[in-house]
Amino acid sequence: MKHGRYPFIIGFLIVPVAIYVTFVVAAYVQAFQLSFTDWRGFSPNVNYIGFDNFVKLFHDDTFWKAIRHHLVLLIFLPLFTIVLALFFSFLLNVGGGSKGGKTRGVWGSKFYRVVFFFPQLLALALVAVIFARVYSPDDSGLINGLLNQFGAGPVLFLADGKLALWSILAVLVWQGVGFYVVLFSAGMGSIPTEIYEAAALDGATRGVLFFRVTLPLLWNTLQVAWVYLGIAAFDAFALVNVMSVDRGGPDGATTVLGLEIFRNAFDYAQFGYASAMGVVLFFLTISFAALTMRVTRRDAIEM
């Protein structure tokens, strides 16, 4: 049986691994190759130019503007999403207090779980279209329509360079919170109820339960969530492409690397330069994930 196990596992893995290598790994390898060329996508002939694309990249103001936008998203997207998801998860699982020696969530917690997860059922492009209308500067926009009822002037959420990126960030948070509510709820569900019951019997308040019990025991899940959200912060292509003024505007106020890669490749036919951007984005993402896992590493808590 032991000798037959490995052929059985290989038989299941060989097809998906082959597909992954063909369509994912090979594409990455090709992107690395193209980043050292001036290929424009029309000719089979490839002219190698060394590191010229990377030198040009680091002197490109648009590239650095996109990096700054990613930095904003990298700080505030995980922070806002995790704080909100933790708050809601705690309410849904422990926030109802203790009754009969058992902890419980707030009233209607099962219904709220469905409500929070609902945005995950919507395609990201559809979410972008919906919020583009919500942010509309005229009366047809949900927010400005309400503001108009109180005599307040329209807020140019997507046309104001100071608000546009924050408006898109708010949509990213709204769209992502539901998934992490479910993730954190699953993590809280794995915490033995006896721990909460013992803390409640000792007179622990909800705040003490959260900071002294839930948060330490949920640390590994938080670590994973921060990495996932950081990777999402290095993306944001779909929302920016659909929602922003003039794709990345106004005046580049919302541009991100994914959008600049798309623009250089398919609008300007500079596939080599776009590939160089992709290589930089790849290393930024990998470095962030590795650094986060290293910095946030803690000894496991036995339960």
UniProtKB/TrEMBL annotation:
Gene3D superfamilies: MetI-like. SUPFAM superfamilies: MetI-like. Residues 67-292 form the ABC transmembrane type-1 domain. GO terms for cellular component: plasma membrane. It is a multi-pass membrane protein. CDD domains: TM_PBP2 (cd06261). It is found in: Cell membrane. The chain crosses the membrane at residues 7-29, 71-94, 114-135, 163-183, 217-240, 271-293. Its main location: membrane. One of its GO terms (biological process) is transmembrane transport. InterPro entries: ABC_transporter_permease, MetI-like, MetI-like_sf. It comes from the Bacteria. Keywords: Cell membrane, Membrane, Transmembrane, Transmembrane helix, Transport. This is Sugar ABC transporter permease. The lineage of its organism: Bacteria, Bacillati, Actinomycetota, Actinomycetes, Micromonosporales.
